[in-house]
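Title: [Solved] Polar amino acid transport system ATP-binding protein 3D structure

Original question kept below for reference.
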Amino acid sequence: MIKVEHVSKKFKHTQALKDVSLEVKQGEIVSLIGPSGSGKSTLLRCIHGLEVPESGKIYLEGELMDRHDPVKYRAQRNKMGFVFQHFNLFPNMTVLQNCTLAPIQVLNQSESEAEATAMRYLNRVGLAEKRDEYPNKLSGGQKQRVAIARALCMSPEIMLFDEPTSALDPEMIKEVLDVMGDLAKEGMTMIVVTHEMGFAHKVGNRVVFLDQGVIMEDAPSEQFFTDPQSERAKDFLSKVL
Ligand code: ADP
Ligand code: MG
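Solution (posted by the thread starter after getting help):
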């Protein structure tokens, strides 16, 4: 589904990613974990095209993502849903409008078609009755569930999550993780940057552990949590578990 080949990314004084290679197969749930500043967000943002790597290549379903072919590149980006830590809902639009905007403007869906799809996904995240509310009337957990529904309305092939529960009050984390767990069960391909080790262990099939811009470990979740190989991963787990 995704292939990252020798990707490096530098910000002014920081080498955020150093020669990172990674393959994600259809239906895999990959947890991207590691200390703060290790390059997790940068990797996810490079995959989604929100950051431009200085070198390396990214393939989606076997096809190179190439900025110099903007029409194809945009179509490829539209196949990836991105969920942000801080939701990034449009504050001046209702829940329903948040969900239908891109399908209408980007996929040229009719309003009724986009609304029907949106209501299906809002139902799935348990928020159909909030369709006419504005985001500021919702709790954090509700906002994030709307953000997930909004991403799903674009019929993505893969979902990318960047710490989707880190900005939530503790009592709201489960409702978001439950929605993500349901998606995983339905076979969605997912890359999830998370500090929720329970989710990474039980829902994720695989852990990619980053440290200082390098993939230090890439292993099935069970193996990573019971028998981490690198000292860095052992040290990290001793602090978070
Ligand atoms: P993580 O998500 O694992 O916490 P990031 O990918 O956000 O890590 O950051 C990796 C490194 O790159 C950090 O040292 C961070 O300070 C730096 N970095 C990230 N984004 C930027 C940016 N826009 N400008 C400058 N430095 C950045
Ligand atoms: Mg981050």
